[in-house]
Amino acid sequence: MPDIQHLTPELLQALARGDSDSNLLGRCLEGHSLIQCATCREAYEAYLQELSAGHEAVLDRMPEMVRQAETERDRALRWVAQLRPLSQDERLARIHQARTRYRGEGFVRVLLTQSRDAVPTYPTASGQWAAAAEEALDLSGLDHPELKALAVAYRGNALRALGDLPGARRSFSRVFQLITEHEDRVSVMTQAEILRLAATLFLYDHDFDRAGEALESAALAYIASGQVRDALAVTIKLGILHEDRGELERAIGFTSRALKHLDPDEEPELYAVARCNLANQTYEAGRAAEARQILEEDADRLAAHPEPFFQVRLTVLQGKLAAAEGDAETAETAFCEAREAFAQDGSAFAFATVSLDLASLYLEQGRMAEVSTVAVEMLRIFEAQEVHLYAYAALRLFAEAAHKGSVTAELVDKLTAYLHDAERDPAAVFRGVN
Question: What pTM was computed for the model?
């Protein structure tokens, strides 16, 4: 869902007219307190200065309306706490069997927030919360295409993160159909959020033109709505798009542009992501020393980012830089740490990719026995998860070459590039080394 929504004079005027009191306030209550928020207080005070006699009623109703919205939010949070320990089947059964609990727009919004916040670290949980939100919305009897579209989009995004690209495509096809049918009832902000998520799927599909169009549309919508932070997040993603296309200087340009407008104290996590992206793009452009400088300049801020996925990604980059600097021991430690994290998370493709970084390091040192061990471990995790038939076949070829001692740097590079494509395309076939 879009980030925190604050009170505005327009929203207060809507409240004065009696338009969806609790729903409007409920959106503003997502993630912050109206009373403590300086932005909301300023909007309220500005509204008071412009208040005409016809709007005085809202002043009398505001305290009660805030209390009612906060009560509904707190109740929804308690319901989510009750559902959290349950399995997904038990959770859906509990929602379905209830008569009065687990109902209402406020509850659905809290479920969607749970889904949004679980990605990228916990994609399975994200999909489960999104499915619960859609179930609760239907059982509440609410005709709310905007929330329905968000629930389906979040579930599709979770499927994409889990590698189920056909399922993700079906979900987003359904989302776009909902928006087409109810465009006037789906806000510009929500459409921007959905476009941002869809762009990630398009990137996985290597449909760069469509991804670029989606991101540019999302950025324009965010700018038009005054959501600067979201517009900057999309600009960072445009950098990722060009990185995937191999257009590294354009990628660096978009990321640098976003960083010029990011305050590291106000947006520490987004700033850290952008700096890590910039370092990686700079490294891929062949400027390892410059990439190292970027990481060292913001070492404390990068280390403070709370997401485990980000920290593992940072560890991989540190390993690549150490390898480029000739520090094989540090590189090996970093790659092994990242491999362990990906193995625990069940991320087969990420495990294989960093394993190939490690294999490349061993190959340079002539440690062919270790290359063979790494090859067998990659094969084992793909075999256990039954992830990708063709990728598994490619890894078997690599394992056989490693066993024979015939692995080359070219083979490692070719297999790394192939796995990048195979993660996004179930039909991708490894062509080997010519």
Answer: 0.71
